[in-house]
Amino acid sequence: MSDPVAMHMSDGLLDAPTSLLFVAVAVVGVGVALAKARGDLDDRTAPLAGLVAAFVFATQMLNFPVLPGVSGHLLGGALAAILVGPWVGALCVTIVLVVQSLFFADGGVTALGANITNMALIGTAVGYLTAVALRKLATRNKGGLAAVAFVSALVNTVLASFGFVLEYAIGGQGGVAFGTVAAAVLGVHVLIGIGEGVITAVTVTAVASARPDLVYLLRGVPQKLELKA
């Protein structure tokens, strides 16, 4: 196994049955997201979804240092879910992962199902559910929204990495002991999640300061938020 802490799994890290299993999981999950997203795509969400996908793609290409020899980058699940909703957000991250895998060799083609399951499905769902659970805090003011975005992104990153650990436990063939992989992946992604949280908080509050009506999480907020800088 060349890089035991990378979220984008490479070819050969999982055996064939496990790879096929998570291809099936990804197909079903993306299919459900595609069907549900039709109700969320409107004149506000559709253009923003394109911008979110482009932003996630660009920021995933930029790595920030975590530990010596270890770097992290934005996963984007919580960010996308907070801005455009969980269904459209899952599709945005899926598109990014497919393009990265097919055209930039970032994540193996045979591991694409597992990567989509972890980052586009688990990450987006967990990030959104965390944000919804903390929504009252997010609607108070700019600081509350930033805190909710930070926590959602942190949880999204750690739980997405747990998906990686689970898949390795089922069919990993990297030649590294499961306990070693679990400790390395989960431990490092707690630190990566802090970086993801900062990027997500800054991005979400910047959008909310200019156009709070574009933030999916804030839809239906009865009172006027004090989000202007």
From TrEMBL:
The chain crosses the membrane at residues 12-34, 46-67, 79-104, 116-134, 146-170, 176-209. Keywords: Cell membrane, Membrane, Transmembrane, Transmembrane helix, Transport. It comes from the Bacteria. The keyword Membrane applies. It holds the Pfam family CbiM. Signal peptide: none annotated. GO terms for cellular component: plasma membrane. It is found in: Cell membrane. It is a multi-pass membrane protein. GO terms for biological process: transition metal ion transport. Its main location: membrane. PANTHER family: METAL TRANSPORT PROTEIN HI_1621-RELATED. This is Cobalt/nickel transport system permease protein. It comes from Saccharothrix ecbatanensis.
